[in-house]
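A brief tutorial aside. Many learners find it easier to grasp structure tokens once they have seen a single protein encoded end to end. The record that follows does exactly this for Copper amine oxidase-like N-terminal domain-containing protein. Read the sequence first, then the structure, and try to relate runs of similar tokens to stretches of the chain.
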Amino acid sequence: MKKKMTAALTVFAVLGGMGTGVYAGSNLQEIKAFLNPGIKFKMDGQPVQLKNSSGAVVAPITYNNTTYLPVRAVSDVLGVTVNFDAAANTILLGEQTKGVSIAAGFDSSYHTKDPDKTVYKDKDYKDVHFDNGSGTRGSSFMLYPNKKYQKLYLQVAAIGDDIEDFSIIDSDTDTVLKKQNITAQEGLVTIEANIAGVSKLYVTGEVKDGSSVFIPLTTSYYQ
């Protein structure tokens, strides 16, 4: 339903908060248009306000009997990620065609590139989160997609015993985006979560004494 709605919308602004330099060299045409703050919006029957990236309310523009909507504000309401490729002068909606590894900027106390810890089932993943701590514990770390991506594909393996209540949580709203148990017998599993519009993720799971959490950063990615 959301994809159909997105396709039906005529969009005007590219990204809220962009500087005018983004448009340098583009084929702009000057027009006379009107802000139309009288138009109201509903999403699935519920009233919503269109806002820019700074949280300010924005109004649609009417030009030649057509209403143009700011794509950033509309995509936030629909839960569709929007980015701008300046080099190609192209708006990117939804999943990106190429995945972006979560390794860049990753930080946790169990982040390691030690070859003695990055190998799982005879494959060296080079860069991993490997929690081999002691005692029954919560194993967790943060990710910062900064609203740039639609999906997260996170690879996880439970070593020794199962990981219970493995959860991917929107840290700003405390909303659980994905939750499942991971058994040691499954091997390396891929967990998919919709992260459109999410700035910060809290990833956590319950680990038993003598067990470890193995997450290869090079094969876990945003899209």
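Self-check: Confidence is low (pLDDT under 50) at residues 1-23. If you spotted this yourself, you are ready for the next section.
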